[in-house]
Design a protein that fits this description.
CATH class: Alpha Beta
Strand content: 15-25%
Number of strands: 10
Largest sheet: 8 strands, parallel
Radius of gyration: 17 Å
Structural class: alpha/beta
Shape: globular
CATH topology: TIM Barrel
């Protein structure tokens, strides 16, 4: 099965520091493409044909390191930079690399911000700039912020928005999440990544319910696969992430499967 991994992280704290990284978190200090391929081993069915690397922190040094990785390694076909605001720069620290061919979008990682995103500096300038540039705005948010994503989509109808981890992640699904997902579903240029959902242990039934709710509300054509590697390794290895995702999906036509596993990610990030 050919597939694109629309959400993985790469880092090497021996070369670029991550402010949040601490020993004892259950994460490797080095997580580069060679490490991913070693984990997958030689089975081509479990190897992505291309991948989108999402910046794990927000420093210019890390962003440049990721872009250099994309220049060297054909597996890394696109990079999403993380938004760090700067005065008079609508793209923040990413302003200097907007013309880099590997840069596909910018991620707004704001789960700790207000539910209506009113305390996020420059969010509308960022949205307008990305729409004009033809880049994606990613949203790492909590469930209560989904209506704010819908409002942002309404104000910037030409902007492609992608919600990371279905706006839920490893949390429990509930009516608030489903209502929020319905709010964003009314805007056709909002999509979401089926990523970051899994928890340790037998949570297959929970993930299946989440994914099938997402398919019902958003439609399979607006969903795409992301491994969230190596964050995901605290729960299961790469093969198991793929297997759990396959098991959670409803029966798909060949066209629907191609859209979920590679088509949508290709159109949004790699075209």
């Amino acid at each position: 099965m050919r597939f694109v991994d629309a959400h993985l992280h790469l880092w090497d704290i021996g070369q670029v520091s991550l402010s949040w990284f601490r020993e004892g978190q259950g994460l490797p200090g080095r997580a580069v493409v060679d490490d991913l391929l070693a984990e997958i081993d030689s089975d081509p069915a479990d190897r992505p044909e291309r991948a989108v690397a999402v910046q794990a922190a927000d420093t210019p040094e890390e962003m440049r390191w990721l872009l250099e990785t994309a220049e060297r390694d054909p597996l890394v076909a696109a990079v999403v930079a993380q938004y760090e605001p700067r005065p008079d720069r609508w793209a923040g620290t990413a302003q200097a690399v907007l013309d880099h061919p590997a840069l596909a979008g910018i991620r707004l990682a704001v789960p700790g911000r207000a539910a209506d995103l009113s305390d996020v500096p420059g969010v509308h300038d960022l949205a307008a700039g990305l729409a004009s540039a033809g880049h994606v705005l990613e949203m790492l948010i909590r469930t209560e912020q989904l209506p704010a994503v819908a409002a942002l989509a309404s104000e910037h109808p030409d902007l492609a928005i992608v919600v990371c981890h279905l706006g839920l992640g490893s949390a429990e699904s509930d009516d608030i999440w489903r209502q929020g997902l319905r709010a964003v579903a009314s805007h056709e240029r909002v999509a979401a990544k089926v990523s970051g959902l899994h928890r340790p242990g037998a949570d297959h039934g929970r993930v299946r319910r989440i994914v099938r709710d997402a398919v019902e509300i958003l439609g399979i054509e607006r969903l795409m696969f992301g491994s969230d590697w190596p964050i995901s390794t605290r729960t299961c290895d790469y093969r198991e992430t793929l297997a759990r995702t396959r098991e959670a999906l409803p029966e798909l036509t060949a066209q629907q499967a191609d859209s979920f596993w590679r088509g949508l990610a290709t159109r949004l990030y790699l075209a």
